[in-house]
Amino acid sequence: MNKSYIGIVAILSFILIACQKKEEASKVSDRKQLFTENWKFYKNDTIKSLNEALNANAWQAIDLPHDWSVYQEFDENSSAGIGGGALSGGVGYYKKSFNIPVEDSTRLHKIQFDGVYQNSEVWINGSYLGKRPNGYIGFEYDLTPYLNFGSKDNTIVVKADNSDQPNSRWYSGSGIYRNVWLKKLSKIHIPNWGTFITTPNISEKKALVNITAEIKNEFAKDKEIEVQVTIFQDDQEIVKSETSALSITANSAINFNKEVTILNPKLWLVDSPSLYKAQIDIIQNKNRIDRFETSFGIRDFEFDLEKGFILNGKSQKIRGVCMHHDLGPLGAAINIRAIERQLEILKEMGVNGIRTAHNPPAPELLDLCDQMGFIVMDEAFDIWTTAKTKHDYSQYWDKWHEQDLSDLIKRDRNHPSVFMWSIGNEIQEQWSNKGAKIGVELSNIVKGLDSTRPVTAGMNPPVHVSDKEVTIQFEETADKPNSLAGSGALDLIGYNYAHQTWEKHQLNFPNTPFIATETTSGLQTRGYYEFPSDTTKIWPVRWDKVFTGGNPDQTISAFDQVRTPWGSLHETSWKIIKKNDFLSGFFIWTGFDYIGEPTPYEWPSRSSYFGIVDLAGFPKDVYYMYKSEWTDEDVLHLLPHWNWEQGQTVDVWAYYNNADEVELFLNGESKGSKSKKGEELHVMWRFPFQPGTLKAVSRKNGRVVKETEIKTASKPAKIELSADRKELQANGLDLSFVTVNITDAKGILAPRANNQIDFEIEGPGKIVGVASGDPTNHESFKGKSHRALNGKCLVIVQSTKQTGEIIISANSTGLESKSTVLTSN
Ligand code: GAL
């Protein structure tokens, strides 16, 4: 054979092998892709058949995630009720056509939905794939047997039925509101949620990491494979295992197990949440045919009967907040930047814990909690067998609870941020034998899949009402087996409210540690204040009585002075948690306001008053009380604003830290120095109002720590815009949250301005949400105009896939307009 011929053959075979390798590698790297673009949507509540929907003309082009309810008008008579946010549900259809290349015809194709609200049904090319009632859980279908490969298109159709209302006590949103993924897999692969990584033995010097993976063989033949595990820390390879040879019989699955040791591990801490990645490669005939990556953390924790929550050997209070899943003006449709912004605002306040009230969260929330350092209480259910609203999950309980709970645990058990599982919130059966029985069943399901985390439940105590008094008796069923609390199902006794009983916990439950799963339920409208500020209002007066009080405009004072009868003022609950080591922490109801449940009011209110931060993401004043207690940053926050009637008696509060006194000056004249005494968390002055400048100076040992000023504003004159990010990624998903401040001519915030703000946008961006934090506003969150609340308003801008400059302008009759430029790259 001639030499040059041999040379050419060698080069060609080299290229061929290189190409094959590349192809294999790309096959593995496109294993899971977002499948959210170019869908079509059609809403119709009355048609009877799928065909009728498919033949309709009114299909609208959309991208997912998508929540159709947030586009509806607020309606007092909405079937979801005011509790559900006065936004209706109905029936929606989604479809998408897509093409699969012939070269992928040997691969398996699966579709994964992270959550569809609710009662989803899915068809591929006319074949029915299944139904999933639960609106919060992720699920997957195998498309492979029904697909066309090559030039012929495939069509996937999804029906979401949220028409039976009410089915939720809060705003649920409707439709495919979470991400969808297309997966292309080798017939031998690790299935969805198929790994479990634990760290059973941790010291400063080394950590033992236990990795379990299910490996499936969907070939009709037995197969020989090799498996290799590589561990990464910050994208740097730190451990590579020898390959392990395995055989898998046809159409079966095996459990692969490997222990690896990581030297000098970087522990996952709330302040420095170090993450590792385990990469599992499946190799067949020297080709890599599957790669599955699992992010994990190394941390050690316990809930101690005396010392409370201990993370990596150090006691730490859980300073948590409860969060519903909606993203305010964006509705329920998930967006990573929107979740990240919420978490940034909470982190800045000193929050270190999130409770996913009262359902499985978006997977992206947990990824962010892993990366940003939050202690998550991951909750499964708000209802078991007994309904709280007419059409809720209780009707699906018998058939679905086991699968829904198991899927939640399998999905979330590798997240280092998840520290406890909640099997339910204020379950109606909780104080009965039935509750004990179901609790034990659920706890066993959890333990069968993950025994590394405690099981808890948010339990509200039995309440006794007599003519004279209302008493709360959390203890009465303690340690008795005829209740969830006494059944042994719970590793942590979870208190919803009942702060009066927390200090008796060790007497009532001597063997089970404490967590306050839900507390406070204080009520506030951002920027609205009432005097005197030191009287407490209980709104409603009793939970079982219709509320007839309150203010005609449905405002609530933002001094920490209004609470629900079952809850407490913010300061009250925190003081108890703070001074008792054995109280491991709490989750305040709520971090952010949410759509729905506008306690204590009914219509025209349509969203909550509980948030420490309002629906637009603007902190209410009590945010700074927590910040002064929970962070080391110097805080000196004054409230209220400084626009009152001449001579009116006003109260001034200061939240402060890192100082031993605060002196207040009005127009240069001292109003005296004050210091927090004993357990106090704020100081207060009372005197007649005069316009001008109110200045506070905090001092430690005579040295100035911080100064804060607020000034009387004259009439509203200008708009100021500030974007939380000026630079966006041109990926069609990124967001900039632009705050509108209405100020007087000198730039002082006009604290009572409620001007109508009209927005315009130019360039490669879209307005995707507007809000002000006013629970009574009925303008659409999806409009381009919104009335400000107490000087503030928000517009949310989303990038497109085009780069360029985005100009966002805000105009209002009688005010100087303003625009700001964002850059999308
Ligand atoms: C709790 C309940 C929450 C919310 C809250 C309002 O009892 O668990 O979902 O309704 O009350 O205060």
UniProtKB/TrEMBL annotation:
Residues 719-819 form the Glycoside hydrolase family domain. Residues 90-184 form the Glycosyl hydrolases family 2 sugar binding domain. It comes from the Bacteria. Residues 196-299 form the Glycoside hydrolase family 2 immunoglobulin-like beta-sandwich domain. InterPro entries: Beta-gal/glucu_dom_sf (IPR036156), DUF4982 (IPR032311), Galactose-bd-like_sf (IPR008979), GalB-like (IPR048229), GH (IPR017853), GH2_Domain-Containing (IPR051913), Glyco_hydro2_dom5 (IPR040605), Glyco_hydro_2 (IPR006101). Keywords: Glycosidase, Hydrolase. GO terms for molecular function: hydrolase activity, hydrolyzing O-glycosyl compounds. It holds the Pfam family DUF4982. Residues 307-460 form the Glycoside hydrolase family 2 catalytic domain. The keyword Hydrolase applies. Residues 647-705 form the DUF4982 domain. Signal peptide: none annotated. Belongs to the glycosyl hydrolase 2 family. This is Glycoside hydrolase. It comes from Zunongwangia atlantica 22II14-10F7.
